[in-house]
Write a structure and sequence with these properties.
Blueprint (H helix, E strand, L loop, with lengths): L9 H10 L5 H9 L6 E5 L7 H5 L4 E6 L2 H10 L6 E5 L12 E7 L9 H10 E12 L5 H9 L5 H10 L3 E10 L3 H11 L2 H10 L4 E12 L1
Parallel strand pairs: 1-2, 1-4, 2-3, 4-5
Antiparallel strand pairs: 5-7, 6-7
Helix pairs in contact: 1-8, 8-9
């Protein structure tokens, strides 16, 4: 399923990545679950490879998997001087990764995970080594300013059903409160317009002042 933001607006999505969570709360929460130093990390849906260099600083090996070939090429170009990163084209339901091949799987803004994505979860179970960890990050549509906008723009997303799905699949949840902080108002508005339907984005731009947006995040995790 095409991603409506990064597939069509990779430069603006880069601005969003730079703005999100300047305090590093997401990374800190992941590190509380697992230490990836000296291990193999799979960044699932790596896009243009924004997070790959960060994983590479400590991991023994990093594999980025991205379904969009143009984005995968950008990720490969971004990391071409890093000796421990490889970018592969593939999907969550058919990962180009060996069985028991990774220690940590990271999937960020994977709002596509939910009922119907069981084949992708089965692939995670295949590729993660015993004792390894998978983390999936998505927007909590029940909390925060951005969560409210997300819920308005995605009325089919039921936070209660989402939590029920993950718990049924044996995953835990950590609720994180982060912010998006932008350097310019034009950047904030551009990001809202690639993330939200036009009418919701217009209303959000009119009502919200300043350069910072509070954003509630679900960190779903499972140990294998």
């Amino acid at each position: 399923m095409p991603s409506p933001n990064i597939w069509h607006h990779p430069r603006t999505y880069e601005i969003e990545n730079l703005a999100l969570d300047p305090q590093g709360r997401i990374d800190a929460a992941i590190r509380e679950l697992t230490d990836w130093s000296g291990h193999t990390v799979l960044d699932l849906g790596c896009g243009t490879g924004f997070h790959l260099p960060r994983w590479a600083r400590e991991a023994r090996e990093v594999v980025g998997v991205e379904p969009h070939r143009d984005l995968a090429r950008l990720a490969a170009r971004r990391t071409r001087r890093l000796g421990n990163v490889e970018v592969r084209t593939g999907t969550a339901q058919d990962l180009p990764v060996a069985e028991n091949g990774v220690d940590l799987v990271h999937a960020r803004w994977a709002d596509f995970f939910g009922p119907g994505c069981e084949p992708g979860l089965a692939e995670l179970a295949r590729v993660v080594r015993p004792g390894g960890t998978a983390v999936v990050l998505d927007t909590d549509a029940a909390r925060s300013t951005y969560g409210r906008w997300f819920a308005q723009g995605n009325p089919s997303v039921d936070p209660v059903a989402v939590e029920r799905f993950w718990s049924t699949q044996g995953w835990g949840r950590r609720a994180l409160d982060v912010v998006m902080h932008f350097e310019a108002r034009t950047d904030l508005e551009a990001v809202l317009r690639i993330e939200l339907p036009p009418e919701v984005a217009d209303a959000a731009v009119r009502e919200h002042r300043g350069l910072e947006i509070d954003h509630a995040v679900n960190l779903w995790w499972r140990r294998y």
